[in-house]
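hey m, so remember when u said the tokens were messed up on ur end? i reran from scratch. heres the input so u can diff it against urs
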Amino acid sequence: MKTKAFLVISFAWLVISCQKNASTQQETQQQSTTLSIESFSSFPEEITGCSCYFSNNIDEFAQQNYIYASDFEKVAFLKINGSFEKFEQIYNKKVDENKNVLQAKNQNYSIVVEMTDQPSESEETQAKSGTIQLTSKDGSTTTIPFYGECGC
């Protein structure tokens, strides 16, 4: 009788322990998948002269709320989960006459920016639309559309 009670208690303890561990793993996975690209209204000091600057949509662009800024050559910035992140450009390729793909990274994240030229009335800037794919070093990914400009 004591043996049966001991086995039942041991089994119940094992089941409860496993459920707590599974619950903790789910919470950790949920925490690691939260990536938020936030807007900002003033450019980092390193962005001067020719640049690209993108917003979530044309309305936010008109209000000068940006989600991405780069200097064309080597650095880009995103505000991720409340913190400005500086990226080093590692790849930039013109896919066709109207489309470019660039990649940049830092110690915590990598980004892939796919941009397509849009009709533009300005001679100094080129309207762009596309997507920004953000990946954290733990593998979490988010992809968002953008509208913006590149120019001097």
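this time it looks ok to me. The first strand starts at residue 37 and ends at 38. if urs says something different then somethings off w ur setup not the seq
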